[in-house]
Amino acid sequence: MTSFADTGQLQVPAAGPGAEKLLACKDIDMAYGSVQILFGVNFDVERGELVALLGTNGAGKSTLLKGISGLVRPKRGKVMFKGEDITKAPADVTARKGISLMPGGKAVFPTLSVAENLKMAAWLIRDQPDRIEAARQEVMELFPILGQRHNQMAGNLSGGEQQMLSLGSAMMTRPELLLIDELSLGLAPTIVGQLLEVVEEIHRRGTTVLVVEQSVNVALNLAKRAAFMEKGEVRFEGPTAELLERPDILRSVFIAGASAHVPASVTGAEAKSAAPQTPSAPGAQPRRPRRPARSARRARRRTLDGFPPLPWPHPTGTSAPKGRSRSSSAAGW
Fold first, then answer.
1. What 8-state DSSP symbol labels residue 156?
2. What's the CA gap between 80 and 44, in Å, rounded?
3. DSSP three-state, residue 103
4. Helix, strand or coil for residue 181?
5. Are 70 and 94 in contact (CB under 8 A)?
6. Rounded Cα–Cα distance for residues 175 and 94 (Å)
7. What is the C-alpha separation between 226 and 224, in angstroms, rounded?
8. What pTM, to 2 d.p., does this model score?
9. Biggest CA-to-CA distance, the chain
C-alpha cells in the first residue's frame, strides 16, 4: 500500500468540542411504504470527524444514509448539511453539494471496465475535465491495483478489488462528506486492513467520513467516535473506547455479526446441528435417533429376497432369474 505521509495537501484540523457541525439529523422518521424504519433519530457529524455507525441487521443504518444522501425522503424531521436544509433535496443535488455515498454490497457496473466505472462516477462533474483528471489520479494513488486493472471488466475483479473500485468511484466527485455503507462486508481480513488504511488516508486529506459497520473491531481501529442503532433508534453515541464498557451493545453487535456469516447453504439437518441445543428437562429420557429409512431400503435391495416375488413366466416371455424357481414366484404380487 502506498504511503501518503508527504502528499503536501492541506490537512483539516481534528474535530473537537465546539467544532462546526457539518451534518445534523434532527428527529428523523423514515419509512418504506407503511413500514416505518427510523423513529426520531438525532445524529450529528462534525467537520473533520471520522465516525462509525454501528448496529444489528435491520437497525436502519443504511436507511439513514439513504435519507442523508437524498435517495429516500424522510417522512419527518430535518437533514442539515453545512447549515442548509437538504431534507427534500434529491440525490444529484446532495452530490453536487459535497455528499457522496458508497453503497453496500455490489456497487459497481460489472459489464463496464474499471476506467468506465470511474468515468460514470464523475458524470455530475463531466463539464470539469481538470477536476475529473485530478480525482482519477488521486484514486489511482490510493488504489494502485486499479491502475493495473484499468481496462478489465469490473465483474472480473475480485471482491476486494470491486470494493476498492466502489470506494474510488465515491471519491471521484471529491466530496466533503463521504458515506461508506458496510466497508468490510464479506471481505478477507487482509483486504479489510488495506481498505482501512485508505479510509484513514482519505480522512487525513480533509474528507469527513461516516462509516456504517457491524464489526466492533473495525470501529475501534478506525473511528474515535461511534453511534449504535437498534430498531430504528440511536441507543448510544460517544467515544468508541466507551463501547468496551457497554456489554449489552457488544453482545448485540457480535450476535448479529455471527448470524450474518452463517452460509446460506446451511439448511435442514446442518442448520439443526449448528443451532444451540436446548437442555432436556430433569428426568427426561433421551430421544432415540431415528434410523435412516433410505439406508434401510438400500440394505434390503442388496439381495433378491428384498424384492417382491414376480409372476413367472413374465408376459414378455423371459424366464425366471437364476436362483429363483417358478414355483416360488408363482404366488404373484
1. G
2. 9
3. coil
4. strand
5. yes
6. 10
7. 7
8. 0.70
9. 103
Q: Is 23 helix (H, G, I), strand (E, B) or coil?
A: strand
Residues 6+ apart with CB under 8 A from 200: 50, 222
Fold (CATH) for 18-89+211-261: Rossmann fold (3.40.50)
Asked whether the beta carbons of 88 and 262 are under 8 A apart, the reply is no
Under a CB-based contact definition with an 8 Å cutoff, are residues 48 and 14 in contact? yes
- CA dihedral sign, ordered 179, 184, 187, 189: positive
- Helix ranges (H only) for 98-177 are 114-121, 129-142, 144-148, 159-170
DSSP 8-state secondary structure symbol assigned to residue 243: G
Query: Concatenated DSSP letters for 300-320?
Result: HTTSGGGSPPPPSS-TT-PPP
pLDDT along the chain (333 residues), means of 10: 40 51 94 93 94 88 94 95 94 94 88 94 91 93 91 91 93 94 84 90 94 82 89 88 77 53 39 46 59 54 48 50 47 43
**Which of these, 200, 179, 136, lies nearest to 5 by C-alpha position?**
200
If residue 203 lies in a helix (H) or strand (E), which one and from where to where?
helix 189-204
Best CA proximity match to 68, nearest among 49, 51, 50, 93? 93
The pLDDT of residue 285 is 61
Distance between CA atoms of 8 and 29, rounded to whole angstroms?
42
The closest of 141, 203, 200 to 11, measured between CA atoms, is 203
Distance between CA atoms of residues 238 and 247, nearest Å? 15
Q: How many residues are recorded in the chain?
A: 333
- Minimal CA–CA distance to 219: which of 242, 251, 194? 242
- Beta bridge pairs of residue 118: none
The SS3 call for residue 18 is coil
pLDDT of residue 252: 63
Pairing of strands 50-55, 208-213: parallel
* Helix and strand numbers, DSSP H then E, in the chain: 12, 10
Report the C-alpha gap between 185 and 46 in whole angstroms.
26
pLDDT of residue 289: 59
Count CB neighbours of 75 within 10 A.
Answer: 13
